[in-house]
Here is the input.
Amino acid sequence: MAESETAVSPPDLRVKSHPVLGDLPLAPVVRITVDGREIEARAGEVIAAALFANDIHIFRSSPHSGEPRGPFCGIGRCPDCMMTVDGVLNVQTCMTLVRDGMRVESQQGLGVWKGAEE
Amino acid sequence: MKRVDVAVIGAGPAGIAAALAAAGAGAATTIIDESAAVGGSLRWRIASIADLPGAFRDLSGLPGVQLADALAERMNASRVDIATGATAWGWFEENIIGTVAASESYELQAASIVVASGSTDVMTPFAGSTLPGVMTARAVLIFLHQHRVFPGRRFAVIGSGRDADEVAMSIERASAAVVCRVDGVDDVRVSGDRRVERIEFSGETHTVDCVVAAFGRQPDAEIALQALAENMLLADAGGFVPLRGPDCETSVPRLYVVGDAAGNVRDAEAIAEGHLAGLAAAGAGADQIQLARDELAGLHDAERLATVDRLSLKVEAR
Here is the structure.
């Protein structure tokens, strides 16, 4: 993890400056993969925030109809942002912080266990 | 098992006021919150929080996020034991609270419990409401202000009232566009290829990438309901609301409910309720409690008074 750089993402997707909150503070870069593609995230942010910052909006499909789903409640109450993270199914990406090297996968329905993976 | 005099569940404005009051009255007090930092809903709000009561008057007018910081400072300077990252998941007999923190479960027993667990957003389904890009007002505020990322750039806001106005104001303050607003869901149709692309209502079509459902809040007093506190379904509060006596005590002795968990209130009222219940839970002096009761009563408007009266537990009828 490089301490000095900030996460690079399309600049218009981060709230970089704000009249009340001020400028977005610098944060170390964390690299995660989403469906095999590497993206950059800010250390200390939740997975869903990193995905939005990289213009990813479809997180999973519903178990019955297979329709696309994305973050809805933002507070860990609904299942719409759940993804498979490092092989663990149904991780609430709106509540779970990114970690360097994390593997995030879109989840189809209830997902499939692939056995214990570190 | 950990034992305290007063356990407060939820560290939003109501819970913080309760914990500070209880600790100030000499009670060994623990406050539990699932978030990493105290402040509750204030953490994701930039609206100015006006007309705060009593000891909080000097903090009136601060944006929510800054008020959260100021309250956190007071908490840190107090004797309140702060358990953040901890979820109170169950109530058991003898006022025992099942709590989980960092995947470890433990029991907390309290002589008095103040439930200040707030609310969740109301959702009403509409055509296309499951598409990615449809989000609650609260989620949009959290992504914009806490996570500092745009869930979209062109927003439609559905709903009316305080919460809808606040989310629309917040989107514009973040320099994104509120393309359109519509009061109800009746003829609303949201569509797009696998995510939100447009919204139609009243014969209009707008190109948007995020649709905000701002239908207000519903009380989330789950811990009090588990304890079988008497309650009633109140349609305009969006759910089951615990009945309360004059000090916000429920039908379960020494179990109090304050703030949004007992039905939507303004922050000033939430704080006044928390302050009162905290004093009562700690067994503070009668004159101090009377002052807090008067302060709370002074904040009720006519509409609120009617609701309070409807929900007042007849203590003598217990």
Summary: The first strand of chain A starts at residue 29 and ends at 34.
